Amino acid sequence: MARLDNLARRALWVSGALPLALRWRRGEPLILMYHGVTRRPPRGLWNCEGKHVELRRFVEQLRVLKRHRRVLPLAELVRGVVEGADLRGAVAITFDDGYENNATAAAPALADLGLPATFFLATGYVDAARWIWVDRLEFALDRAARRSVRVAGLGEVPLQDRRAALGAVKRFAKQQPGPAVSRIVAEIEEQCGTPAGPPQDDYRFMTWSQARQLRASGFEVGAHTVNHPILSRVDLALAEREMLESRDAIRRELGGCSDVFCYPNGKAADYSPEIVASAARHFYAALATERGPARAAERYALRRLGVGQGTTVDALAAMLLRER
Q1: pLDDT for 95-116, tens place per residue?
Q2: Angle, helices 313-322/17-24, rounded to nearest 10 degrees
């Protein structure tokens, strides 16, 4: 059924029906969420979930947005949403985490087309040879020369289907407190005999020099915590330090920081009412990852639409029209 839907959508794009619909149906304001842009095709488990969009596809997506939507800086869109401005057909582009390819691949493509974007940094990874844990897990399982791994609390995880194994361990780990997640990944690395070493290629995070260049080029840079914890799973005082120290590091290094915060992971269970209240005391608004249009009633949990490698131009058009 999904294949038939894809074929039908592609036919509508080629026929011109979807572009025509985009022209006439503007819709509510949308915030798009990216993570990375890569110059390499996926292989093995690397980028198996399409988190990093290939550069050619990213440029195609940007051209659709430039032609059929009003692409605004995030700050302008959010303020307009809060103040009730007419933002039909408006879109903002955001990037989470702070991968180096945001600076080396995404930003030049955006600049070539004159489009704004906001880059949210997990500042403890900037200018540091650190892996975000999901990438370490992906790297370890991709290179494992064994049939299964054992995870405390989850049991034996078969590796015949490594993508399924990666998904199962990630889902389990995201329910655990931070120190337990680190132990899980370290134990899997030990079983697989695959120590990560310094992150390479698209696993690497940007430097402060690159972040400064982003801001100097007119892009907005915002806070995404220091260590990227799921905020509802850590002590409230620590959660607040993560939020504010990330903001303060960006202000110190770049001379300014977006007044919109971005929750790590960003599902409804990942930020408690207390976290939302903290965000409201210190930021103008905050972004989540639940899908949908941006609405003033959700100022401190603004919805976004995730865009990845699987988002073809016709899929993007359908997303913009359905707003989900």
Answers
A1: 999 999 999 999 999 999 999 9
A2: 30
- With residue 183 as reference, give the H or E element that holds it: helix 178-192
State pLDDT tens for residues 43-65: 888 998 899 999 999 999 999 99
Burial class, 287, CB count within 10 angstroms (exposed 0-12 / middle 13-18 / buried 19+) = buried
DSSP state, residue 267:
-
Q: How far from 151 is each of 63, 131, 160, 169, 186, CA to CA, in Å? A: 44, 20, 16, 8, 11
Q: Using CA atoms, how far apart are residues 122 and 263, in angstroms rounded to an integer? A: 10
Q: How far apart are CA 265 and CA 38, in angstroms?
A: 21
First and final CA of the chain: distance in angstroms?
19
* pTM exceeding 0.90: yes
Question: In the numeric block, which tokens belong to residue 168?
Answer: 């199962």
- Neighbouring-strand partners of residue 234: none
Do 247 and 121 contact (CB within 8 A), yes or no? Answer: no
Q: Check if the beta carbon of residue 97 is closer than 8 Å to that of residue 132.
A: yes
